[in-house]
Amino acid sequence: MVAITRLSEMRIVFAGSPEVALPTLKALHASSHTLEGVLTQPARPVGRKQVLTPTPVALAAEELRVPVATPETTEDVMAALSSWKPDVVIVVAYGRMLGEEELSSVPQGWWNVHFSLLPRWRGAAPVPYAVAAGDEETGVSVFRIEQGLDTGPVAQVRTYAIAPHETASGVLAKLAEMAPEPVLTLLEDIDAGSLRVSAQQGEPSFAPKPSRNVGSIDWSKSAEDIYNQLRAWGDEPGCFALRDDNEQQVKVISAWHDVAQGGLRPGELVSHSEGVSVGTGTTAIALTSVQPAGKSVMQAKDWFRGLPPGVGFRA
Q1: CA distance 125 to 244
Q2: What DSSP string describes 243-267?
Q3: Is there a contact between 206 and 303 (Cβ–Cβ < 8 Å)?
Q4: pLDDT per residue over 226-250, tens digit each?
Q5: Residue 235 in contact with residue 298, Cβ under 8 Å?
Q6: Which residues of the chain carry a pLDDT beneath 70?
Q7: Are residues 138 and 41 part of one domain?
Q8: SS3 label, residue 149
Q9: Are residues 247 and 123 in the same domain?
Q10: What is the model's pLDDT at position 1?
């Protein structure tokens, strides 16, 4: 048990950037604690026209009339903290590594909301890696940030059962909605002097920022592995196959595991009542919608009808 003096008033700073951080930001603002300010990433160019766009957290904080800082250096972070004088900082997907000077400047520490059951899937993309691996369970871990990569002691854990057909984006949305409750419980424990933390137990696994080719489909793999890949990376950055006649890329928009269809070679295409079946190393994957190179999203059966005879995907 960590002994902490009870505070007369909790002064909070929130650090986060993307949309998944918004439920926790809004919960802190609505709580009995004082949200002194928000740290977020600077505005970045977005879209084809490269319009300079603030982060979702910056926009939400401005609507809530909470001061916002977009530091780019340690000095900038320290200046914001010096102005706001927080007792504790809550972090959700901030997107910035923190040094010892920043971490030691906050009396009750920096606490990170991580969307996995640590030490499984430490790193930037825990949810899609969990889905791609076929994990049946994940969750939310709230831990104290230290110099290591997601290595700090854990104060709060909530578990979540991954449904067989859930996508990574769907799981992440559910976890984001779960996050405020353990964060507010953490703050209550700090305020009451009853905080308990536990060192992470077990062999860690890692979820680094994915490569550009993470969505490239190898049809020689099992249908289960490919379906998990589609669930994990189909929304972002997207999954794709290559035609074996011209190497053109075909993005897979929607698909499902067709356990009844067997006997196809990896990458072989045949008509299916709902679209197109593709052979894998085991059973088949049924495609229902695709996006061919240079074209709009279309029904897979319509795309298949326009193919030359015998065309398939490169295995």
Answers
A1: 31
A2: BTTT--EEEEEEEEEETT---PPTT
A3: no
A4: 999 999 999 999 999 999 999 999 9
A5: no
A6: 1-8
A7: yes
A8: coil
A9: no
A10: 34
3-state SS class at 27: helix
Task: Check whether residue 185 and residue 238 sit in a common domain.
Answer: no
pLDDT of residue 259: 86
Q: Could you say which DSSP state residue 163 is in?
A: P
Alpha-carbon distance values, 217 to 6, 183, 234, 267 (Å): 54, 38, 11, 10
Residue type, 250: V
Task: Fill in the amino acid letter for 8.
Answer: S
| Structure token digits, residue 229 | 């890949």
pLDDT digits (tens, 9 = 90+) for 262-296: 899 999 999 988 899 999 999 999 999 999 999 99
Residue 143 lies in a domain: yes
Query: In the 8-state DSSP scheme, what is residue 216?
Result: B
For tokens 């059973």, what's the residue?
283
SS3 119: coil
DSSP, res 20: G
Q: Which domain holds residue 290?
A: 223-305
